[in-house]
Amino acid sequence: MKAVFWGLFATIIISGCATHKSPTGRSQMLLFDESQMSQMGAQSFDAMKKTEKISTDKQQTAYVNCVANRITAILPDQSLNWEVVLFDSDQINAFALPGGHIGVYTGLLKVASDQDQLATVIGHEVAHVLARHGNEQVSRSQMTNAGMQMADIALGAGGVANKDLYMAGLGLGAQVGILLPFGRDQESESDELGLELMAKAGFNPAKSVTLWQNMAKAGGERGPELFSTHPSHSTRIADLKALQAKVTPVYQAALKKTLAKCH
């Protein structure tokens, strides 16, 4: 069992090694280069366009594109030609993928009731891409799987009784101790970065609080924050309120420019 313990300890240490810093200064472990992530993003998006129903509502599609285009227009890297697709689904959700792909579900438009609230979500999702969170998650998942395989081999070689029970416990520990809290860090970071993006694009960052209040009403009861990859609604709203003083001057400066009205 000592060999198992030190094997797992070494795996945890390796999985925590940082090779990069996120835009907010958080340590990141990234195992894949950007070209690989862009290829994964393109493949995933193409698959979704084949399996998900795409909205034929021209007005809603133009509206979503307007909001997304204003956000992507202020990004430091203008080499990507961002693709935006509105999917016809009741899901209250949106996403962005490496390589420049944004998907929005029509169900979100029932909760994000104006351009500023929609910009909150799109800015948040684009921030995930800018902060290389997809790379981070895939890298962390690969390291966790490697650690589990090492433990399985060590337990088998040691003739440990109830190996399956040990592996189940280790699996829960890996998920709760590594993957889920890590996801919450990413979500909070994307909230902060997304708020800055929407403010630079001339969207009112104060509406982010309204958006998540609406999300709380639409989401109903949720489980403990410990077992969620997202911060609780109350935590998220409190954090967004605390960030308003930082991003409001950015928003006010953006209002001096001529901005396209999205409706």
What's the arrangement of secondary structure elements?
Blueprint: H1 2-15, E1 20-21, E2 27-28, H2 34-51, H3 58-72, E3 83-87, E4 94-97, E5 101-105, H4 115-130, H5 133-157, H6 163-200, H7 207-219, H8 233-254
Parallel strand pairs: 3-5
Antiparallel strand pairs: 1-2, 4-5
Helix pairs in contact: 1-5, 3-4, 4-6, 4-7, 5-6, 6-8, 7-8
Write a structural description.
The chain has 263 residues and is mainly alpha-helical. 61% of the residues lie in helices and 7% in strands. It contains 8 helices and 5 strands. Strand 1 (20-21) and strand 2 (27-28) form a beta hairpin. Helix 1 runs antiparallel to helix 5 (133-157) and helix 4 packs across helix 7. The longest helix has 38 residues, at 163-200. It is globular. Residues 1-18, 169-182 and 223-227 have low confidence and may be disordered.
Task: State the main characteristics.
263 residues, 61% helix, three-stranded mixed sheet, mainly alpha, two-stranded antiparallel sheet, 8 helices, disordered N terminus, 5 strands
Q: What share of the residues lie within helices?
A: 55-70%
Structural class: mainly alpha
What's the gyration radius in Å?
Answer: 21 Å
Report the order of strands and helices: HEEHHEEEHHHHH
> What gross morphology would you assign?
globular
